[in-house]
Design goal:
Number of helices of chain A: 16
Strand order of the largest sheet of chain A: 1-4
Strand content of chain A: under 5%
Oligomer: heterodimer
Number of strands of chain B: 12
Radius of gyration of chain A: 26 Å
Helix content of chain B: 10-25%
Shape of chain A: globular
Order of helices and strands of chain A: HHEHEEHHHHHHEHHEEHHHHH
Bound molecules: FE2/S2 (inorganic) cluster
Order of helices and strands of chain B: EHHEHEEEEEEEEEE
Structural class of chain B: alpha+beta
Number of strands of chain A: 6
Number of domains of chain B: 2
Structural class of chain A: mainly alpha
Helix content of chain A: 55-70%
Largest sheet of chain B: 6 strands, antiparallel
Strand content of chain B: 15-25%
Radius of gyration of chain B: 38 Å
Chain lengths: 457, 312
């Protein structure tokens, strides 16, 4: 460090007295495993989203009022377009670098949600949610929900025909809530769809409220992590419940994070330069009452869209309320998936009668309940997502769409529980076999090894 | 040190007993530390990558500013990021010892364990191996140049000011003087001692071109340009204050002064609207005013002085 920097640091520290705490912070030990980078990828994507998003706000107009487009895109020159769509066209085709930044933003949003999902799966399958980390797991689910909302709203803001269609479906789903639906829908959308309030409101949600929540709650998430320390994978020779082995934050982890951020940004830059995604010029502006073929949301909304397609049509008219398939598919079933994710840590704790701190990660096959539950839930969401491509699948394969749909209905209903249960059984057998083997060796340590987990299932 | 045990504790069994000895939780213990061997190749790599990153950043910036194809600046951005990332990686592996450390865990569900996180540590942050300080400067300089390049999109936030654009208003030779409704005005429409806020025809609401038209109660004096005074009484001044651009909206009849409500600059309308009080340094520009063949008030040209505040 140069004398100038040293002087600056010293004089700051003379006023804050943080050197001891700072040394401790930079000495925090990071266990080494590739899957620990997933959360970091999500964090870095969030940073890239804030940077590129700030740039986009300089050009975007959060309004659906019609204005005349005068720009270099022949297709729309001189036509009236919604202001939001017009500003996106202008940014994309008349501002140098505008399209690149839009694509970077979109790419980072996909990466953010994908990394969040994978990070969540890692936590779920390896048991990183156990005491003392249950609350941080719940905070993670909140962050995931916010990320989905942010992604959906971001997809709506260009106000192209797909965006408008997505908004219409969201509005209809809100309407479908028994008793309070219409009022809630009017509150959210400012009246009967489409109102001029939707885009301005969703814009503010997208750039102010939701990012503030995302960043703030991410801060809490990280605070929990720093205070509770990382979990770690089992390693011979280290008592992982009492010690963490790894590289200190400074310099090894710091260098790794900087490299990761720059390379991730680099990959996004390559993708944004080469792949023509998020170019909404062709889908056209949203015009009420018009929709193109293949109306489909972003991939992270596929599971909800798939549910909407699969659930058989019904409307039950009760005195004063109507329960529709839209309500059940769009809100009740997703609510059940989230509910299952939320209660799972406590379910497992009950099932295996666990207490105390747990810091060492596990092979999910060692915990039959988790293996079965995890596979079942994951498979269900995967099949629901796949069902959102039913029309394309039918077109490509030539199989009638009814058949495709029935295929997905049956597999989604039966496959997850069947395979989940089978995996749980198989894992249980595997543990039993290992127990037998150990018993044959008559090792006393074996009791400690499998005692807790092999008792049940 | 009691951090290692010979048995296997990897199958996720229950927490085992507390270590009996050792340092408090949150205190780092270094297990192994390996100094990297000096390497010429590494130096060359860091230096080369730093140069590549800096050049890419500059190419990105220039390409954006010149509106070059996206393929060019997109690839420059990607190459710069990859190079910088790799340079950072090589730099750190070369300059810092490879350290593995253990840290005793806090016990959260054990009420008897006191909070150790508040205690200061006795282990300072890991220090670099003292060698080749120029690499540090190469890397920092490269990162700086790259970041500078990333600022180039600022140049796309607005158009470039055209020469003379700021001096120009909507007034031209023969442009009729109209009121806010767009109706042209005859000299008779302004009573003695009257005042009107007027615009150039076809540019009502064009802020820079707003004008105060007034009828003086006594003959205009120097430095008023008398050729531009119609019927010896009607003068027109720019309504944009020469201090900071507020509309000079108040006309005080007793001393025939225009008064700016923002910082109280006062302009003498009889004497060419020179400032008599307040922070404004220049007179309100006088509009060349005349009457056309149909008897309507018109401009004889654009303002000759700069309208509104000074610019840099
Ligand atoms: S703007 Fe008129 S006095 Fe300052």
């Amino acid at each position: 460090m140069t004398p100038l920097f040293a002087l600056l640091f010293d004089s700051i520290d003379d006023r804050l007295r943080l050197r001891g705490a700072a040394d401790k912070a930079v000495n925090k030990v990071f266990p080494h495993h590739w899957s620990f980078l997933l959360g970091e990828v999500a964090l870095v994507s969030l940073g890239i989203l804030v940077l590129t998003g700030t740039y986009l706000t300089f050009f975007y107009r959060g309004s659906s009022e019609l204005v005349t487009y005068n720009g270099s895109l022949e297709l729309y020159n001189g036509r009236m377009l919604p202001a939001a769509y017009e500003s996106v066209m202008r940014l994309s085709y008349d501002v140098p670098g505008g399209l690149l930044f839009r694509r970077l933003h979109r790419g980072a949003s996909h990466l953010f949600i994908a990394a969040t999902v994978l990070h969540m799966l890692r936590i779920l399958f390896t048991g990183a949610f156990r005491t003392p980390r249950e609350f941080n797991y719940l905070i993670g689910i909140v962050l995931f929900t916010l990320a989905l909302a942010e992604g959906f709203i971001g997809y709506s803001l260009p106000y192209d025909s797909l965006a408008g269609t997505g908004l219409r479906i969201a509005y209809s789903t809100a309407l479908a809530v028994p008793l309070v639906g219409p009022q809630v829908a009017y509150w959210v959308f400012g009246g009967e769809f489409p109102t001029g309030d939707v885009i301005p409101r969703f814009y503010v949600l997208h750039v102010m409220l939701l990012p503030a929540l995302l960043l703030g709650i991410t801060g809490v998430h990280l605070f929990f992590l720093v205070r509770q320390r990382h979990t770690q994978f089992p390693r011979r020779g280290i008592d992982g419940h009492n010690f963490i082995l790894g590289k200190p934050l400074w310099p090894a982890q710091f260098a790794e994070t900087v490299t990761l951020s720059l390379w991730m940004f680099g990959l996004l830059a390559v993708a944004a330069t080469v792949v023509p995604w998020s170019d909404v010029a062709l889908s056209g502006p949203y015009v009420p009452g018009e929709v193109g073929n293949n109306a489909q949301p972003d991939w992270f909304m596929f599971w909800l869209d798939g549910m909407l397609r699969m659930l058989p049509a019904f409307e039950i008219d009760l005195p004063g309320v109507t329960i529709s398939a839209l309500f059940v598919a769009g809100l009740v079933l997703p609510g059940l998936v989230f509910g299952a994710l939320i209660i799972y840590p406590w379910l497992e704790k009950r099932w295996y009668r666990l207490d105390g701190d747990w810091h060492v990660l596990q092979n999910p096959l060692d915990i039959p309940l988790r293996a079965g539950f995890g596979l079942g839930t994951f498979l269900a969401v995967l099949l629901m997502s796949a069902a959102a491509t039913s029309d394309q699948l039918s077109r490509i394969t030539g199989i009638p769409i009814e058949t495709v749909l029935w295929f997905f209905r049956i597999t989604t209903l039966f496959l997850p529980p069947l395979l989940g249960f089978a995996l749980a059984r198989w894992s249980r057998r595997r543990l039993d076999r290992r127990d037998l083997e150990v018993a044959r060796r008559e090792s006393t340590e074996s009791q400690e090894l499998h005692g807790v987990v092999a008792e049940r299932v | 040190m009691s951090t290692t045990r010979d048995d296997e504790s990897e199958a996720g069994v229950g927490p085992s007993s507390r270590p009996t000895s050792g340092s408090p939780a949150g205190e780092l213990q270094i297990v192994s530390s390996e100094d990297p061997p000096p390497s010429q190749i590494n130096d060359a790599l860091v230096l080369g990558l730093s140069i590549v990153a800096a050049v890419s950043g500059i190419v990105f910036g220039v390409a954006i500013t010149l509106d070059a194809p996206m393929l060019l600046y997109g690839s420059a951005l990607a190459i710069g990021l990859f190079a910088l990332g790799y340079a950072v990686r090589r730099y750190f592996t070369d300059r810092f010892p490879l350290v593995e450390a253990v840290e005793p865990r806090l016990r959260f569900t054990d009420p008897d364990i006191e909070d150790d996180d508040a205690a200061p540590t006795s282990i300072p942050a890991i220090q670099p191996v003292p060698r080749r300080p120029f690499l540090q400067w190469a890397l920092l300089g490269s990162a700086g140049a790259f970041l500078l390049g990333l600022l180039a999109p600022i140049s796309t936030l607005g158009p470039r000011p055209r020469a003379g654009q700021i001096r120009q208003t909507a007034w031209r030779e023969g442009t009729r003087v109209v009121n806010t409704e767009g109706r042209p005005i005859r000299p008779d429409d302004i009573a003695a001692g009257g005042v009107a806020y007027v615009w150039p025809e076809g540019a009502v609401g064009n802020e820079k071109s707003s004008v105060v038209l007034l009828s003086l109660g006594r003959p205009a004096l120097e430095p008023t340009i008398l050729d531009w005074v119609v019927e010896d009484r009607l003068v027109a001044y720019s309504k944009v204050c020469t201090h900071a651009g507020c509309p000079v909206a108040l006309y005080r009849q007793q001393d025939e002064a225009l008064f700016c409500p923002c910082h109280q600059s006062t302009f003498d309308t009889v004497r060419g609207a020179v400032p008599t009080f307040g922070p404004a340094a220049r007179a309100l520009p006088q509009l060349p005013l005349g009457v056309d063949r149909d008897g309507y008030l018109v401009a004889l040209g654009d303002f000759e002085e700069l309208v509104g505040p000074a610019y840099g």
